[in-house]
Amino acid sequence: MTTVFRLDASIREAGSVTRAIADTLQDALVSSLDDVLIHRRDLGLKPLPSTAWAGAAFGPYTPPDLQTPEQRNDVVLANTLANELVSADAYVFAIPLYNFGVSQHFKTWVDIVLTDPRLSSGSPSAIRGRPAQLIVARGGGYGVGTPRHGWDHATGWYRRVLEDIWMLDVELIEAELTLADVTPAMAGLRGLAAENLASAHVAAREHGQRLAGRLNSAAAGVLDFAAA
Ligand SMILES: Cc1cc2nc3c(=O)[nH]c(=O)nc-3n(C[C@H](O)[C@H](O)[C@H](O)COP(=O)(O)O)c2cc1C
After folding, report:
1. For 71-76, which contacts have Cβ atoms below 8 Å and span 24 or more sequence positions?
2. Are 92 and 24 in contact (CB under 8 A)?
3. Whose CA is nearest to atom 28 of ligand 1?
4. CB-side exposure of 86: number of CA atoms within 13 Å?
5. pLDDT on residue 200
């Protein structure tokens, strides 16, 4: 059995571009894999409480008799979230750009997960070398030469955590101009936006098929991600 962990951070369900691209990737993956479980964590629709971070961070350093019930719950939550990552063979992260920065729900999740010793910054990552797909969507355009070039302060941070702290083998799929259809000032960009979206779905299909091939090889013992 191959387990794929899928995380969604869009705060909307209907019309979500990141969810739709992740669905395309997942469909391609599932149709090419023999035995797969998709383990989902939906942070957009079921956010974690940001207050859990303090308890998860300080609970382990508090003598057991002084721990509050909240701290104990927060440490259990951190352990549960880390287990979800450690028990997966591959990852799909679907995350929009919000207010030129990181999704607060994803940030809360990362903060809590980083309190677990298996995934903390500075420790050997328990999920090192495993494949991850990072899907991001942005309402505007951020390419070189555009007025907002350099304003996406999220994607670099996502890569920093996934690639440099957890040492995942990350592939990125990006969709831009997703607000063109509903923003009159972006009417002239609608053709470009449609092309961009179509390309993102093509990439998602290709990545899903390629990932399935990689996971099938790993299941057959040909590849060992942990040794990568
Ligand atoms: C509250 C909010 C803030 C947003 N902030 C930005 C932003 O700073 N820059 C941007 O390009 N798009 C921004 N957007 C647009 C989203 O990035 C875009 O709609 C994206 O497609 C959302 O992902 P989803 O389609 O999966 O829901 C924002 C959307 C919302 C709802």
Report:
1. 74/112, 75/115
2. no
3. 98
4. 16
5. 98
| Residue 204: its H or E element | helix 190-219
CB atoms within 10 A of CB 182: 9
State the Cα–Cα distance between residues 1 and 156, nearest whole angstrom: 32
One-letter identity of residue 16: S
Q: Give yes or no for residue 136 CB within 6 A of ligand 1.
A: no
User: Is 12 close to ligand 1, i.e. is its CB under 6 Å away?
Assistant: yes
Note the residue count of the chain. 228
Q: Are strands 36-42 and 2-8 parallel, antiparallel or unpaired?
A: parallel
For 104-155, write each residue's pLDDT tens digit: 999 999 999 999 999 999 899 999 999 999 999 999 999 999 999 999 999 9
- Residue 60 DSSP code: G
Q: How big is the CA angle at 36 (ends 104 and 97), to the nearest 5 degrees?
A: 20
| Rounded Cα gap, residues 174 and 163, in angstroms | 17
- Tokens at residue 115, please? 């309190």
**Tokens found for residue 127:** 């999920």
Atom of ligand 1 nearest to the CA of 44: 27
Query: What are the chain's domains?
Result: 2-227 (3.40.50.360)
